[in-house]
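README, section 4: Worked example with a bound small molecule

Sections 1 through 3 covered apo chains. Here we extend the same pipeline to holo records, where the ligand is supplied as SMILES alongside the sequence. The molecule in this example is zinc ion. Nothing else about the input changes; the structure line simply encodes the ligand pose together with the chain.
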Amino acid sequence: MVTRRELTIGEIRELAAAVPDPEMPMLTLDDLGILRDVRRDASGTVTVTITPTYSGCPALDAIGEDIRGCLAERGETAVEVRTRLSPPWSTDWISAEGRRKLAEHGIAPPPERGATTGGTFVPLSVRCPNCGSPRTRELSRFGATACRAIHVCAACGEPFDHVKPL
Amino acid sequence: MPEETGAQTAVVDTAVAAYVLRLGDDTLIASHRLAELVASAPQLEEDVAVANISLDLLGQARSLLSYAGRTEEQLTGVLRTEDDLAYLRSENQFVNCRLVELPNTDFAHTVVRQLLFSGFVFELYSELADSTDETVAGIAGKAVKEVSYHRDHAARWTARLGDGTEESARRMEAALDTAWPYVAELFTDDDVTRTVAEAGVGVNPSKLRPAWDAFVDRTLQSARLERPRVPPITGLAGMSGRDGVHTEAFGYLVAEMQHLHRSHPGASW
Ligand SMILES: [Zn+2]
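The generated complex, written as structure tokens:
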């Protein structure tokens, strides 16, 4: 019988951080910035805290399952995944690496600084991820997932998704 | 704990449970009305938009109803989950404002309802983000960012339809006349709101009216529409949605929303 060594918090964090997002699988939870906290209590139970991108994010349950699954493979079975809303997630939390991966997959990343909650949206020029042209326009503010809008490029004619600022 | 403080806490907790239940019901019913339009909106992009907005609202409703249930449990010792509250109450136990239950008569009615409602919750959540209650503040701080998009979406449609064709303007005017009598209910203070406002947990909705008025007037002006001159409508014996007195259309909504859960208790997929 093989007895496994208990994983360190650092190792658990690394494993959880590398879990792909179910809706944008080119991004890890770390790229997306939704992994909040990893800890182990005295009884050995691991608690992983994540935050939803949007209140109604339907992927949240799947993400919890994926985290538990990937930790179970490494022998960590007493794992609780919790959700925390505050402070609210912002697209500012998407890492530089995450932004690069989005663009590489044809999705325009969010602007560096997110929208305010002041209610007025400053029109931002979104660069086409296909040809790089700034001559694009918004087709619809709501897209395939809660965090995406649909834009179209006037230069190359391609429609594309944009992770809108939140 | 001294007895008096205990009694006062119970009064506040009772009001908080009632208050958060109202917020949860408003959001749940607004979500359900929008969900009815998924796959039958006037254009494909709008199908996607109403689905997204409905889903945001449903997520907010789940957090609010769960919290209302947990707060109530502190007082009664009995926990009602978000599902119990959404699926197992009868029509007259819902305490949502009547505005959100108004039917999707045509797309103009949907746009107007969303404009008036998201304008209201935007101001509300902006205030509640600073609530002394951590959970309420957390839910509101998250929701306000989403609602900001919903409000903007409704304002754009209002401008497009109000300042569109003769037909679209006529429909928007009719929709405004239908919805406007239910506006006053949004801003009515009562014992529940006064108690939660005093505790710093919630707000008296009358406080939100000036900012809402400014937003709605600005939007209607941009759409070349006028604020309707129709009086508020009260329910039976002066009661309203907050008392569980609803419009005729609401019973059908509740039946539709609950029938799966009631027919197949515990169903999952
Ligand atoms: Zn292009």
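What to look for in the output: Chain B touches chain A at residues 45, 48-49, 51-53, 55-60, 62-63, 122, 126, 134, 137-139, 141-146, 148-149, 151-153, 215 (CB under 8 Å). The longest helix of chain B spans residues 3-35.

Section 5 describes how to batch many such records.
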